[in-house]
């Protein structure tokens, strides 16, 4: 089974009237980079990459550098291909664009392999521990003019309540754009609206210095927060360690990290309690397996970061299915050592409309796909509607 063609698709959806902020940037659009790999026998695999910056460089990397290497090669050896492509690009692509490109290719090859042998990806990865994954709602971003606190807090309470009414038991909210004091008001508003039963997670998108991350981290314990995500910039591993040592709330991070080598250093330097590799960024499903093995050896729970289209959600669900309970118990759910899937709730047609059968929440969970490969089918009409040249 040989690779015949490799195509890239840059997708963009403007968010007129629905723009939002994290601590780092305004989001005026949803975008993504998809790759479609077709074999000589007509089997198609889909992958996704390019989550954190303009998708055009990732597309160029695939089109101009990696696709010529892939064409004519095996389509059913994703792990071997991943290792070979990384070895080829190691001298100039250990992080960033090349690894995002490798991620998209790797996911597509797993999709092909599963379709060829008639098995879901999670079966090829060793077998599922679960057939559905508890979802947490990511929302409560910052709107335009986020400093208008009276209006913002009321809107936050309404938004948080809507997620609870939709069936979510876990909510993740954004902090870091305002002062520590104002962001604590946001957390208090969400807790007030959601009630004590709901688990809260907070994501700073690396907005703080270690000093301010410690300040807010200590206060978050009073609100029963279950983890503080990306408290400091990803390069500051010493800062991560300072924060983790100083607060009781678990520290999560890693969505901006690449390959097993980057995560090895995070773990060795005791930076995080929870690892968050993004499968469309860190190196794909092949690399995820290595990161997960490392995390397990350090007693660290892995909760993949999820952003992008329905393809990214599908890849994450297969990865989550094969994560063993850490540590193993006869009743892992009761001890809260089961992984969860991020289910971003902001407007995103690439996630909600791209697939022929899109993911939905049922009893607070999302089902793991069971069809061959990723178990999804791309709606070509939607794909072409949002495709752009660059």
From TrEMBL:
An example Gene Ontology molecular-function term: magnesium ion binding
Highest taxon above the source species: Bacteria
Domain Mandelate racemase/muconate lactonizing enzyme C-terminal positions: 153-250
GO annotation (BP), single: amino acid catabolic process
Name by which UniProt lists this protein: Mandelate racemase
UniProt keywords, alphabetically: Lyase
Membrane-crossing segments per the record: none
Natural source organism: Mameliella alba
SMART domains for the chain: MR_MLE
SUPFAM superfamilies documented for this protein: Enolase C-terminal domain-like, Enolase N-terminal domain-like
Listed InterPro entries: DgoD-like (IPR034593), Enolase-like_C_sf (IPR036849), Enolase-like_N (IPR029017), Enolase_C-like (IPR029065), Mandel_Rmase/mucon_lact_enz_CS (IPR018110), Mandelate_racemase_C (IPR013342), Mandelate_racemase_N_dom (IPR013341)
